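2024-03-11 09:14:02 INFO queue: dequeued item Protein SirB1 N-terminal domain-containing protein, len=278
2024-03-11 09:14:02 INFO validating residues
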Amino acid sequence: MKDSELNALVTLLDDEDTEVTEIAEDRLMRMGADALPILEHRWENTDDYLLQTRLEELIERIRLNDLETELRFWADMESEDLLKGMWIISRSAYPDYPLEKLRADFAQMYHEAWTQVGIHGNAIDQVKQLNDYLFRLKGFGPNETDFHLPANSLINRVLETRRGNPITLCVIYLLIAQKLGLPVFGVNLPNIFVLMYRSEVRDFYINAFNKGVIFMREDLEEYVSQLPITTQENFFEPCGNLEIIARCLRNLVVAYGKTHESRARQLKRMLDIVSAYA
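2024-03-11 09:14:37 INFO prediction written
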């Protein structure tokens, strides 16, 4: 569609006839992301409050539809790419954040971890070296003052602030560890997310929310036994990327639930998409 036709459709958005505006909105929705530049330009340059409101709502709907389509494709075809899944979540709040920036940041951290720390020795030694890099040199740690802050679940913000929640800190840890060739995987425990190191000698667990402290299976069993739930074997086994993304989305639904209901509904739809594939 030519720009002139697009502009004509945008002009119809402030028509007094609601049927006309609905037709214009429907055609713009079907155009998807291609319509965004003109819609955003018009939104920035109009003083008409009603038109600006309609434009803002339409832009949000198009972005959401585009995001849901991308998430559905990721869940179906690309779920092995955990970083991309985390990026899609971040785009719910930062729609223009580039994936290339995120990949470059992780490539830099991998390079630093390999050259500055080195990953040598036995399994415990390797984890201690990675802990030193991530928690001492890079300064990553828990956001204990505002645990439910939405930014704690957005990986781009965690990279900027160095503060996150259990799942984002674990994701950063396991992405670097796996790139280094370490057999580290996510473990989707009730109430907390941790990591497992698959060792030829003995598996052990890592709490990235507590500076990478190491603990054993019996420690987890004792923790779970104190919860009002029935213990299941899968509590202690590695989980897949779909489960990781679903848990991250679930955290965000809770975080936005009382302060931003429309955003919470958006994230709940995204959670439903991922849950259908998990």
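2024-03-11 09:14:37 INFO annotate: The chain has two domains: 3-77, 82-277.
2024-03-11 09:14:38 INFO item closed
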